[in-house]
Amino acid sequence: MRVGSDRRGVALMLVLWLIVVLGALAAGVGASMRSEARVVANVRARSVARYAAESGVVAATARLTALLRAAETPRDQALVFRRLDDLLAELRDETLGPVRFQVAVADLNARIDLNAADETTLLGLVQPFVGEVAGRALVDALQDWKDEDDEPRSFGAEAAAYAAAGAPFRPSNRPLLRLDELTRIAGFTDSIASLLAPYITVRSDGRINLNTAPEPVLAAIGWLGPAGAAAVVAERERGIVYETPAGTVRQLTRDISVQGQVDVMGVTTMPRRILIVSRGWQLDHALTHEIQAVYELDAVRLGTPRLTVRFWTERDL
């Protein structure tokens, strides 16, 4: 009887251990399935977010093209960009079933291109924010960052200065590819970069739109200066719309005191580069996808505007 009892005890222990092992296996399988389910859900959410963001870009380009096609005169075309926020208000926050996208459109010719602008223009933008001496140092550091040589300018910095300061970055010796590179350059703190952010770009063609550029950008134009910029803004507030660069410059040189040589090729009355920023996401998921698309605008001929992609970047947020 004792032997039988021992056997039953051993069998019971084996059964218990088997139950434990099977339970552990089941828990592992369940955890693995939940993990795989989360991965699948994240992949799906990313795909949905990306297509939502792309839908925002498509909707913005279609709406902008339609607005420009409806314009009957160069003045009407220019007015589209003067009233851009209002005309594209319906795209600012759009929900389509389980997804949402938000779109912002900017005229890059209303900003100063850090790669294309000359030193006079850069100084004219930066110095009013930080002062004459600090502004010169920032512009010299920016130019040293972009130029191909290792000779520092009077107030600039090349690789040796960055190494001596213990900085993790070195001058790239090429044009800036993104605005967030700015804070890697000697002297450009986060606060200074934030002050300048609404007025700068690295994706324009270098021309400044007299119809849309804010006063700090206009004031940086050497021949226009602060007084000329104030006059342009005042005229725009009275409803004046500039139709052609050459005609506008002739008018301005008659009406204001011009400082130095006028550069007609440095200004425009219609944007040539448009930035579309679109963010999309699935309503029940935190992942957001952002697309930044820069388009070249050809709207010279009325009724046949053309938008061509020049730069396209994407990222998850």
Word description of this protein:
- With 317 residues, this protein is of the alpha/beta class.
- It is 48% helix and 16% strand.
- The protein has 10 helices and 9 strands.
- Strands 1-2-7-8-9 form a 5-stranded antiparallel β-sheet. The protein has a two-stranded parallel sheet with strand order 3-4.
- β7 and β8 (288-298) form a beta hairpin.
- α4 crosses α5 (132-146).
- The mean pLDDT is 88.
Beta-strand proportion? 15-25%
Shape: flat
Report low-confidence residues grouped into runs of 5 or more.
none
How many DSSP-defined strands? 9
Record the strand order, biggest sheet. 1-2-7-8-9
Supply Rg. 29 Å
Largest sheet composition = 5 strands, antiparallel
What is the oligomer described by this structure?
single chain
**What is the count of DSSP helices, taking H or I runs of 4+ residues?**
10
SSE map:
Layout: H1 2-70, H2 74-82, H3 84-87, E1 94-96, E2 99-107, E3 112-113, H4 119-130, H5 132-146, H6 159-164, H7 190-196, E4 200-201, E5 208-209, H8 215-219, H9 225-237, H10 245-255, E6 267-268, E7 273-282, E8 288-298, E9 306-316
Helix pairs in contact: 4-5
Question: What structural keywords apply?
Answer:
flat; alpha/beta; two-stranded parallel ribbon; single chain; 10 helices; 16% strand; five-stranded antiparallel beta sheet; 317 residues
What's a quick, concise take on this entry?
This protein has helices spanning 2-70, 74-82, 84-87, 119-130, 132-146, 159-164, 190-196, 215-219, 225-237, 245-255; strands spanning 94-96, 99-107, 112-113, 200-201, 208-209, 267-268, 273-282, 288-298, 306-316. By secondary structure, the protein is α/β, with parallel strands linked by helices. Helix 4 (119-130) packs across helix 5 (132-146).
